[in-house]
Specification:
Number of strands: 12
Shape: rod-shaped
Largest sheet: 5 strands, mixed
Number of domains: 2
Radius of gyration: 32 Å
Structural class: mainly beta
Strand order of the largest sheet: 2-8-7-4-5
Number of helices: 2
CATH class of the largest domain: Mainly Beta
Order of helices and strands: HEEEEEEEEHEEEE
Distance between the termini: 97 Å
Helix content: 10-25%
CATH architecture of the largest domain: Sandwich
CATH topology of the largest domain: Immunoglobulin-like
CATH superfamily of the largest domain: Immunoglobulins
Oligomer: single chain
């Protein structure tokens, strides 16, 4: 009789546990993301959300994973996590059950792919060196201005550039063939 009663209780608890839901899906926003941008990872439940279990979220970036306890007063489904990826690449984010202290593993596993693109190139406010702005055979005269304006003087054998110099925002290219000078300056007649 004791054996039958324990068998019935075991079957009943197994069925009750089997009917409860588990980890259903992982959603990532934004996707694609940029390197250095914060990403929101949401793990949702499938079926009736479990109320007492443990899970781990793997970020696939070589760093640490995050353990989460599902219980009232701690975390409940859906669970949201913020994460920043430093490097571009394709990452597989995975949520799976894990025993954490007294919390037995949540049932199920879910994954999501995240594409992280490179950070946008920083716009160059002004060229860093004279070599980067003056054409071959020319040297910068004086210092570069706050807006990135500059002038270059050509040597005796220096030929005038075939094209106008590329200047930063708010500047115009100039060339004086007689004085062998080229550069970028504030537009004539405007003060800044």
């Amino acid at each position: 009789m004791k054996f039958q009663m324990s068998l019935v209780l075991t079957l009943a608890s197994t069925l009750a546990f089997a009917q409860q839901g588990g980890i259903g899906a992982v959603k990532v926003e934004p996707s694609p993301a940029r390197a250095g941008q914060e990403v929101k990872i949401t793990v949702s439940a499938e079926g009736e959300a479990p109320t007492f279990c443990g899970m781990v979220v793997h970020f696939d970036d070589g760093g640490e994973s995050r353990n989460i306890k599902i219980a009232s007063g701690e975390s409940t489904f859906p669970v949201s996590i913020s994460k920043t990826y430093a490097k571009p690449g394709t990452y597989s984010i995975k949520a799976e059950g894990k025993k954490i202290t007294t919390h037995f593993p949540c049932v199920g596993t879910a994954t999501a792919k995240l594409v992280v693109e490179g950070a946008p190139a920083a716009a160059a406010a002004k060229p860093a060196t004279a070599a980067a702005v003056c054409p071959d055979g020319y040297k910068m005269t004086g210092k570069m201005g706050k807006m990135g304006d500059f002038a270059c003087k050509g040597g005796k054998a220096a030929a005038m550039p075939a094209q106008a110099l590329a200047c930063g925002a708010g500047l115009e290219s100039f060339a004086n063939e007689k004085a062998r000078q080229v550069g970028c300056r504030k537009p004539v007649g405007k003060k800044k």
